[in-house]
Amino acid sequence: MKRVSSFVVAVMVGLVAVTQTAAAQGTVPGGINYQAVARDNSGNELVNTDLEVRFSIRTGSPAGPVVYQEVFTDVTTTRYGVFSLIIGRGDPVLGTFDQIDWSTTNHYLQVEVKFENLYMDMGTMQFMAVPYALYAGKSLEPGPEGPAGPQGDPGDPATDDQTLQYDAQTKILSIDNGNSVRLDTIVAFRARKNTSQNCDINSNVILTYDAPDLSIGGGFNPNTGIFTAPADGIYTFNVTYNADGSGGSRAITMYVKSAPYEIIADEISSGITIRVRSVTVKLDKGDTVSIIVYTGVSTQTGTGSFAGYKVG
Length: 312
Known about the structure:
By secondary structure, the protein is mostly beta strands.
């Protein structure tokens, strides 16, 4: 079996749901979403592979004391090498997740993966804004009302208290006169092409689509058929195609940054349906992806669907 040598990590995917749930219920759920792509030492995804994952939360520094540790057993990657876990929902080894005091010092997440009976350290990263929403959320929990205190002296008007704000429309967490961060990294879309269009033979045509029936995170323009990556990451795209009309010798190719990236299918005869074909690719923010049909001797573009989502 191949050994694991690296993980491409996308941490805290889906925190928007955590924040919104907290606001609605008045409490903060005990967990942080975590997603990663497992790869072997050749860079290939470890598909349908059993793993064991251990999370350790350290304080003060990457080598500081462990205040919480948990283990996830029976983890299996998907056919794209992806696995998703919720930090705080594993089998505790040390400490209690909901007793972590996020307010006292910096915290760090150490990730270890057990593969072929050996835990391998995949590195330690500092928690940034995301888990501190758990601490900030304590302000949502009402406590007992105490007696009124004496009137204090007026404060310096130039040193107002700062307010932490979350905009559900833009998904941005910000602090007055401070930094802001976009919390979600979820990107997903799916659109159908229900009508075949007339075209010239032996031509390359970018397939355009009807209005998407799924669109999260932006990036896809159905009128041009072009997806523009809104963030760096690993994306998976699914393509289907139906060669309606007469004429064969068609081909379907996925283009990345306006250049051929992978042939989905070629020598497609009239009446043939190409079932779901998946392609995974690493994109930088601003990179474009489109599906182009080479018409061969046909004068019809054909129909189908185009979908994609960010996996890491």
